[in-house]
Amino acid sequence: MARIKEKSAGGSLVELVTIVAVALGLALGIQAFLVKPFRIPSESMVPTLEIGQRVLVDRVTFRFSDPSRGDVVVFKPPAGADTSVCGVRHASDTACPRPTRGKSDTNFIKRVVAVGGDRLKIVEGSVFIDGRRQNEPFAQLGDCGTCNLEREITIPAGHYFMMGDNRAESADSRVWGPIPKDWMIGKGFATYWPPGRIGTL
Are residues 28 and 78 in the same domain? Predict the structure, then answer.
């Protein structure tokens, strides 16, 4: 009788270990290929996203479609973002038109404000595309060194110009340039923490 109990306990342990291993494998697979959680590290996306808020990132959509203006995206910025360096020399009244060649290891979250072929300038923190001021109800405007870049640049084909919603407190493409699509990790689609701020993006 004691031997039967021993085998049963051993079988239960093997079953538990198997369940935990499968669950862990599924969780890692989901994060790697489908949905990834991301914690907001700075105030650059205020008021849309607060520091410490958690976002779910869709890693599938951009495999089948291109990002659009207004998408909130997690991505790797150019290596120039680590030292606030543009990829080319440019006039002081323009945004950075080209990124550095290499990419950073850091994850950023910003909003797509312009796509390849757009002519972009920034006036008082607001984005102008092809001479027209964009409707940006999510933007928190303010005064900063990169809030007035009134000479137009053209976004290179296949690149995306990223800006934080908190325009005066965001280091973004204005400083280090637009990014290529293949540096994007995924599209933010929902917030799940804290409970009082659960919702869609």
Answer: no
